[in-house]
């Protein structure tokens, strides 16, 4: 979503990794893990600029984004191994010495992604891919042992003879259907695991910029509290909490230059931002079981009087969860500190929210509940955002 070019790169690398893994007889679990890691391998390239640099063959500090990717993913238990694979995906083989890096163990899978990544970056856009196979292989082979595990290069040597492999890469590049789809294992998550992964998404969304660094954590904490005050059952409260984490996932389509613009936005820039809830909806729509969470998450800019966006819904269409999300989003946005301004104090916050509820934009009951429990809810927001800020600072250190 951040950059079509990078998206394509992740797909190509995943495809190449999967095929090499198969050629190397990786067992099912290992093959699945390394393929997931390959899809996510450049997730640490948080800003567009950084992402573009990642794609250059000899980047100056390739370990930075790999380390950031590891930091992002490692706290989600299901991704522990995957995070470790990603952490070292730019380490050279150096005749086997590359199984360690700065005293840490490097997994063999990291080296497989390293190879797949370099193969992908050698593909030129202006020529049929199959016609590039000898040039690509020669370049890879010349670095066998030094940059790449020779055993993996041998697997590539065999793979490169199969035409379908190159045709598939061409099709993937063109967004066409292709032959050898990666068979990812279906995963069934319970609600707590789901919260874990949406929390991970919150970081991917927020950590792109210092301006938004703790926003989703705040919205999630506030929305959950509000749901509890409305006596929602536990499962619904958790769904609302998860929705808070991902409500702005569509903002991944917004360039960081716009996210970080200090002054007022132009109409064109605002139009780009305005699209984000549409993208949140489309993205979450693809995942089975997220129907309600999607509804809560994607309707946070709809308004009771029908003046919101993008679906132009009205009061009768908006569920309690969606209404809570709208209030939690506004409350968090005006209350949180941003690099260019301090957050509003209670009096001002109350004024903003009451005005909007009088104008029939947001739900009056929810606004009054929030005001009645202001201190408790605001404390929950501050606590959640403080924790997120500490995490973000760990990242920021790596970004200099
Ligand atoms: Fe990378
Ligand atoms: Fe939003
Ligand atoms: Fe938001």
Full CATH superfamily name of the largest domain: Hypothetical protein af1432
Helix content: 55-70%
Q: What is the count of structural domains? A: 2
The CATH architecture of the largest domain comes to Orthogonal Bundle
Taking the sheet with the most strands, its summary is: 2 strands, antiparallel
CATH C-level label of the largest domain: Mainly Alpha
The 3D shape can be described as elongated
What is the count of helical runs? 20
Bound molecules: fe (ii) ion
Question: How far apart lie the N and C ends?
Answer: 24 Å
Rg, rounded, reads: 23 Å
Order of helices and strands: HHHHHEEHHHHHHHHHHHHHHH
Q: Order of strands side by side in the largest beta sheet?
A: 1-2
Which residues form runs of ≥5 with pLDDT under 50? none
Work out the number of β strands: 2
Strand content: under 5%
List the helices and strands and how they pair.
Layout: H1 4-23, H2 28-39, H3 48-54, H4 63-73, H5 80-87, E1 100-101, E2 104-105, H6 108-122, H7 133-141, H8 150-159, H9 163-173, H10 191-206, H11 215-229, H12 234-246, H13 256-259, H14 267-274, H15 276-285, H16 291-298, H17 320-335, H18 346-358, H19 364-372, H20 374-399
Antiparallel strand pairs: 1-2
Bound molecules: fe (ii) ion (3 copies).
What would you say about this model in short?
With 400 residues, the chain is an all-alpha fold. Helix content is 60%, strand content 1%. It folds into two domains: 4-173, Orthogonal Bundle (Hypothetical protein af1432), CATH 1.10.3210; 191-399, Hypothetical protein af1432 (Orthogonal Bundle).
